[in-house]
Amino acid sequence: MSEINSTNAPVAGNSSEFSERLRFFCVRNAVPIIFLVFSAIAIPLSGFSAHHLIQEMLIRVARNSFLVLSLLVPIMAGMGLNFGMVLGAMAGQIGLIFITDWAIVGIPGMIVAAVLGTPIAVFLGYICGTVLNKAKGREMVTSYILGFFINGLYQLVVLYTMGNVIPIGNPLIKLSRGYGVRSAVDLIGIRGALDRLLDVQISGIHIPVATYIVIAVFCFIVVWFRKTKLGQDMRATGQDMAVASSAGVPVERTRVVAIIISTLLACYGQIIFLQNIGIMNTYNAHEQAGMFAIASLLVGGATVARAKITNVFLGVLLFHLMFVVSPNAGKTLMGQAQLGEYFRVCVSYGIIAVALVLHARRRNKERERARRDFRLERMRRGPKCR
Amino acid sequence: MPLMNRYRVAALILVLGGTLLLALIGKQHTLILANEAYEAAGTRLDAYETAVVKNPNPDEDDLEIYEGESDSLQVVGPFFTVHVEIPAAEGQGALSAAKKLYLGYADTITVNIPQMMHENNTRGE
User: Fold this and answer.
1) What average pLDDT does this structure show over A63-69?
2) ipTM of predicted complex
3) A106 and B26 in contact by Cβ < 8 A?
4) Cβ of residue A354 closer than 8 Å to a chain B Cβ
5) Which of chain A's residues have a Cβ under 8 Å away from the Cβ of B107?
6) What's the CA gap between A313 and A63, in Å, rounded?
7) Closest to B46 in 3D by CA, of B72, B68, B69, B70
8) Residues of B engaging A, defined by a Cβ cutoff of 8 Å
9) Contacts of residue A118, Cβ cutoff 8 Å, sequence gap at least 6
10) Which residues have C-beta within 8 Å of that of residue A9, sequence separation ≥ 6?
């Protein structure tokens, strides 16, 4: 998949070309390199076998990739990291609550949950996209706060209206007071439904082939989508809104559609995620979905303005590798597993903060360079040319 | 109506219809099998001492339901065939019967075993 924005690539044919290329590669991929180094140190300390790590990574990549892939579309449209994907996660969870109540199991249950969550995700995505259009240039923080607001509405709906206004018949998912959904809903009906659909075993390692097929199909859809009219409109909007608008691209509508698509995909991604977990924390499961997905994407070397499919898989792999090895590595080093967990949180989110700061710094430098080039051009043309 | 809108409406109907069909296929039902006496239209059918119901799950044992008791099965899908065997007892040979049930969207379906055996025997006459 080609990049959306390429910046300052070294020129070929120079004697110090290799060192220049290496420097450029290291600067551009600083975050994944740091994570690789930390993982290389932590893996032997953790004491986990290769078999265990490979199995864990296969499960985690299958579980999380779809959610992270849903972030690519808003980045393509220049809207940065969509923290509002948590809205899609909530829509998916509402669908799962209904199919658990109605006792629809297996793959049909997952599809029915996705269909039920679709109109909710489209509606929430439309709201999010419309609000983000009013906050151009501040999309990320706006979507972050919007996520909190909709989370409050979601909790109101699930805690008070379900079982009251919205009929819920299954007593196993209702609170003892007669209305409201329990904090943990057992998704036994769809647990592993997609993962076990086509489960291949190689040397004792289970590979959820069906889940990977779904992810692969989605990757092909993303590649195809970039070549469509709508995809090209999004790329144009992402590069320069003013130029895209002048070229006849309906910028505002395109941005809303990008957010709707992202929210919808987050809905489906959350269903895939929860069918793997098997239990849904009704009031918490969606909260970390956005943060972990965005963290994974940034760890994979993506930036706020540029993201590829390879960033997704590399990021999920590295981020979740740290998840798995840090507690045991911390226990080996410092005698307490919790310290390892704190260390992981510190390193993971610290590196994400550095990545965001580097992006802001790079953007300011580019603006400064553009202004300087504009001034030089005007000076070169002289006062006669206006 | 413009052609594109017709396609959209058709696609929407297809998706909704497909969802209803999938809900039917994936619906889990609780089948209650009651080995209790049954009375209807002046006829009384006594419960059997033991009734053995074949479990659709090969990893689990068949259900043995004693006189006056009930047990349940979790089944998935719109159709299910109940296989019942009554072991031979004094003055009575072994009996067996099968009944295909349409479960639809119902959560719980109750099957009375003596009634089912009676219907099966009557159909055979």
Assistant:
1) 95
2) 0.86
3) yes
4) no
5) 103, 169
6) 11
7) B68
8) 15, 19, 22-23, 25-29, 76, 107
9) A91, A264, A267
10) A24
Best B12, B30, B76, B105 member to test A by mutation, with max A CBs in 10 Å, is: B76
Interface test with A, best of B16, B21, B28 (most A CBs within 10 A): B28
Contact criterion met (CB < 8 Å) for B26 and A108: yes
Compute the mean pLDDT over every residue in chain B, rounded to the nearest whole number: 88
pLDDT single digits (tens) A202-243? 999 999 999 999 999 999 999 999 999 999 999 999 988 899
pLDDT at A13: 54
Strand ranges in chain B using DSSP code E only, listed in sequence order = 28-34, 38-40, 43-45, 50-53, 63-66, 70-76, 79-86, 95-102, 108-112
Q: Hey, are the CB atoms on A111 and B27 less than 8 Å from each other?
A: no
Task: Assess whether pLDDT exceeds 50 at residue A254.
Answer: yes
Q: Nearest by CB to B23, which of A107, A112, A189? A: A112
Cα–Cα distance measured from residue A69 to residue A219, given in angstroms and rounded to the nearest whole number: 8
Q: Which of A105, A168, A190 to mutate to test the interface with B (most CBs of B within 10 A)?
A: A105
CA B33 – CA A130 distance, rounded (Å):
55
User: Two tokens at A176?
Assistant: 């003892």
What percent of chain A lies above the pLDDT cut of 70?
95
Q: Among residues A69, A215, A219, which one has the least CA distance to residue A207?
A: A215
